[in-house]
Fold this protein.
Amino acid sequence: MNLQEIENKAKDIFKRKHMSVATERTYLHWIIRFGFWVKSHPKGTHAEKIMAYLTYLARDRSVSPGTQSVAKNAIFFLYKQVLEIEVGDFSKYLASSKPRRIPEVLSREETMAIIDQARGVKRLIIALLYGSGLRRNEAMMLRIKDISLQRQAVTVRDGKGFKDRVTMLPSFLILPLKQHIEEVRRIHNADLANGFGDAYMPYALGRKYPSAQKEFGWQFLFPATKISEDPRDRTQRRRHHLHPTAVSKAIKAATRAAKIDKRVTAHTFRHCFATHLLEAGADIRTVQELLGHANLETTQIYTHVTTTGAISTPSPLDYSGNVVPMVANG
């Protein structure tokens, strides 16, 4: 099987398993890179080739542990799903060992300053990232039916690890979301009148319930500004969700306008959500559930940046009785 045949078969499997377009692109990237590497390093068993390539990424390319892990998952997918080959144990590779970084966290004032500088629907999305602890792509994939204004709950479906969870919806966002949903309804009605209005349906639900894809509840909460081709089925034209990069650009612009001299990304607001909840006295198990972390250890990293922990302890310079006034440049 040549590389083109492998790519075509992989695409069919991605579609059949309803894996995201982002995952498809990432896995294909690493499958192709591994394929070219194997051509120049043909010796050894399959397991030895995998171990050698993963070691090469860590030792020669200095990739992060996360990048090495994604490459490993893509290669495992290649052998198990596409080539249908059992490669055996390939765990004895050199693992990347870059230190785990403490997350960048903003103060409440800095967080709200950035949100206040954003405009329109982007402001609503950023506020939801912070207020509900969502990942950027989780927010983009929300449907109208996933928002419960009465229960003040947000249902995240097929989150990281293909897990569903329910998180909080701040009272602060109820009225803006209500107004936004009515605007989405207007857009959807216009699409229906123009012969469109079909939402992308996961897990072949479109075939099982053909009329459901036109229902308002299945529409994306943050729809794109225009109708476009379906990335998987070029014969279909529909209104997809807003592109994630639009949110990232809005965050960058709002951070600059707020004069916050820190690196702020969409994920920063999720870090702030967890940290500020812990600072307010929330139970760490509750925060773990709201974030959808499988392991408590992942959530515990936020205890290192809260102002109620070690960094809240007064410095000896502050409680010293003989502090000499500091003079700039003196």
About this structure: Residues 39 and 114 are 49 Å apart (CA to CA). The first strand starts at residue 147 and ends at 148. Residues 100-312 form a domain with the hpI Integrase; Chain A fold (CATH 1.10.443.10).
